[in-house]
Design goal:
alpha+beta; Diaminopimelate Epimerase, Chain A, domain 1; 2 domains; 19-stranded mixed sheet; two-stranded antiparallel sheet
């Protein structure tokens, strides 16, 4: 490619309601600084438009998956997730992404890391960020991951083949405990006022708070919440305090820079009808709880997979804020329907109590995925350091 650019093999794929760049680990150097420099150049960061790279200038499309051979005997593939910032030169590896995870199985099959087995290929994914296992059931047709199917997911047009992701091994992924403080509810104090929250670690660590604690209804559109600057400032202050409790930062004030991806911040409220940001109507009778979730200092336009897993787990913990907001009839059902800004997402969740400790027994979500492009990206050699 001449003296100024290198070619990097990659696949661009949609996973759930996100889109990311999937790269084989041997395409990147092992040195962390050089690797991140290449990734930032590949995405076009830092630049809010990512105009000189492949990033989509949105938190949902500035995502990275690095795949490689398994480093543990019970896995089929290693998977490292990275959230690539577009307003600073930073790649956040402190977490997982449930949507991008949906694309790992199909991409691993396409890249030859996993042998395709029809009609369903089970892919055991080692998530290196948290050292936990994720099991994906990927439908296969003619040696490739199936695309056509009847599963519709709100936040993505059309339908696709259903991929089942079981996250039951993800509890305590960051802290070692489903309830890091040992309590279903804690209180965070800002300017002398106490805010009840639930801190739960499953899939990713989350802070759950009732909408009325923030003076919200809970059915606001993402843009409405983002436009409320006092509420957004309060959310980040609370999230920073939680990040310190989770052990992600030493000082709460550093969370926006050092840990912008985790913890997620989730605003929950009882089920009710509302209009999605794109004009659809969600009937309150069709959902069990309403959620509005923030990550990367932005409101999520749909609902992240790991956030869905964690909410499902929290809903089974008596005394948690999610448990209290959940439709009472849903406590006796395996599947919970979550209302989010673009529609509805279901989650299967079940917990057990062993020796007095709550353990996650089932945490499954359904996603679709599709490969969009496979080829080579051009990266400036100057990015290699």
């Amino acid at each position: 490619m001449g003296s100024e650019m290198n070619m990097v093999r990659c696949i661009i794929a949609r996973g759930g309601t996100s889109k990311g760049i999937y790269i084989l680990e041997n395409e990147l150097p092992k040195d962390q600084h050089r690797r991140d420099s290449i990734i930032l150049s590949l995405f076009g960061s830092p630049d809010v438009r990512q105009i000189d790279g492949l990033g989509g200038a949105d938190p949902l499309t500035s995502k990275l998956a690095i795949l490689g051979p398994p480093s543990r005997p019970d896995a089929d593939v290693d998977y490292t997730f990275g959230q690539v910032s577009f307003d600073q030169a930073f790649v956040d590896y402190k977490g997982n992404c449930g949507n991008i995870s949906a694309g790992v199985g199909p991409v691993a099959i396409a890249m030859g890391l996993v042998r395709a087995v029809e009609p369903v290929t089970t892919v055991r994914i080692h998530m290196t960020n948290s050292h936990r296992m994720l099991t994906a059931e990927v439908p296969v047709v003619d040696g490739r991951a199936a695309v056509e199917g009847d599963l519709a997911i709100d936040g993505c047009p059309g339908t696709g083949a259903r991929i089942t992701l079981d996250w039951s091994d993800s509890q305590g992924a960051m802290t070692g405990r489903l309830l890091p403080t040992g309590q279903p509810q804690d209180r965070l104090v800002v300017d002398g006022r106490s805010y009840p929250v639930s801190l739960v670690d499953a899939g990713n660590p989350l802070v759950f708070i009732a909408a009325d604690s923030l003076g919200l209804e809970g059915i606001e559109k993402p843009a409405e919440i983002e436009a409320n600057k006092p509420v957004m400032a309060l959310i980040e202050t609370l999230r920073g305090q939680a990040a310190k409790i989770f052990g992600l930062v030493e000082n709460a004030e550093d969370a926006a820079i050092k840990s912008p991806y985790n913890p997620f911040f989730c605003i929950v409220s009882p089920p009710r009808s509302y209009t999605t940001f794109d004009g659809k109507r969600v009937d309150g009778n069709d959902i069990d709880i309403v959620s509005r979730l923030l990550f990367m200092l932005r409101m999520h336009k749909t609902h992240p997979g790991t956030g869905t897993v964690c909410l499902g787990a929290a809903a089974r913990i008596p005394g948690s804020i999610v448990y209290e907001m959940l439709r009472p009839a849903a406590h006796d059902r395996l599947t919970i329907s979550i209302g989010h800004p673009a529609g509805i997402i279901p989650v299967e969740s079940e917990v057990t109590t062993e020796n007095g400790a709550i353990r996650l027994k089932r945490a499954a979500i359904y996603r679709t995925a599709r490969l969009l492009m496979e080829g080579y990206a051009y990266v400036r050699k100057s990015a290699y350091g």
